[in-house]
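Note on ligand handling. Small-molecule inputs were canonicalized before submission; formal charges were left as drawn, and no protonation-state enumeration was performed. Where a ligand contained multiple stereocentres, the stereochemistry in the source SMILES was retained. For zinc ion, this procedure yielded the string shown in the input block below.
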Amino acid sequence: MTDHADTRATARCPICRKPADGAFRPFCSRRCRDVDLNRWLSGNYVVAGKEEEDEDGLGAERKPEDGRG
Ligand SMILES: [Zn+2]
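Structure output:
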């Protein structure tokens, strides 16, 4: 009997291969979601092996005021 279905385990983040989160599926986090989006916008969607560990480095395009409005 397979009482423990692994349906959720099937969804993995295409960016870092981590288990996807319900709020950001199919990605694991907002960061990875943005990374994927930026790749599409850039027009060069490729499976790059380059990983960005500096989260602060991505803040260049992020607006300083985000909780306003
Ligand atoms: Zn991820």
